[in-house]
Design goal:
The protein is built from four helices and no strands. The chain is mainly α. It has a single domain (about 1-35, about 40-144), classed as Helix Hairpins. Helix 1 packs parallel to helix 4 and helix 2 (about 45-75) runs antiparallel to helix 4. The longest helix is centred in the last third of the chain and has 37 residues, at about 105-144. The radius of gyration is 19 Å and the shape is elongated. It starts with a helix and ends with a helix. The mean pLDDT is about 90.
């Protein structure tokens, strides 16, 4: 049981590290690519930034799903990586179809992965909301 709890701690920590590093890099990138004060800030430019932010967030979530899937595969929970990835994606996204389940004590990983996914999606939502607010303020500022 202790080994399983340690593994869960490591997996959640890896997700936080991936998401945190992605947020830091993404926000630094955004600071460099957004037009500076006084420059024209067009709607197409705003949409292009939002598209890249959303895809960046999607990549972060997929990387985290891959970490969990690798754990399932490494521990022999599923016969192939495609099934491990599928289970991981349905757990992380909280869809949880239930058509594929890991054996015995490994089932708790799906529940913790779902909680982790909810937290990471919430974090992404907060960042996306902040980016949209910032872009809206910059757009208004550039119009005056």
């Amino acid at each position: 049981m202790f080994k399983l709890l340690l593994l869960l701690f490591l997996l959640v920590s890896a997700c936080v590290a991936i998401h945190g590093a992605g947020m830091i890099l993404g926000l630094r990138w955004l600071g460099r690519t957004a037009p500076h004060h006084g420059h024209h800030f067009s709607l197409p430019a705003m949409f292009w930034i939002l598209i890249r932010v959303v895809y960046g967030l999607l990549v972060l979530h997929i990387l985290q799903i891959l970490v969990w899937a690798a754990c399932y595969q490494w521990n022999g929970c599923f016969s192939d990586f495609a099934t491990s990835f599928y289970y991981s994606a349905t757990s992380y996204s909280t869809v949880g179809y239930g058509d594929v389940v890991p054996p015995g004590s490994w089932r708790i990983l799906g529940a913790v992965e779902a909680v982790t996914g909810i937290l990471m999606f919430g974090w992404s939502t907060g960042v996306l909301f902040s980016v949209v607010n910032h872009l809206q303020a910059r757009f208004k500022e550039s119009r005056h």
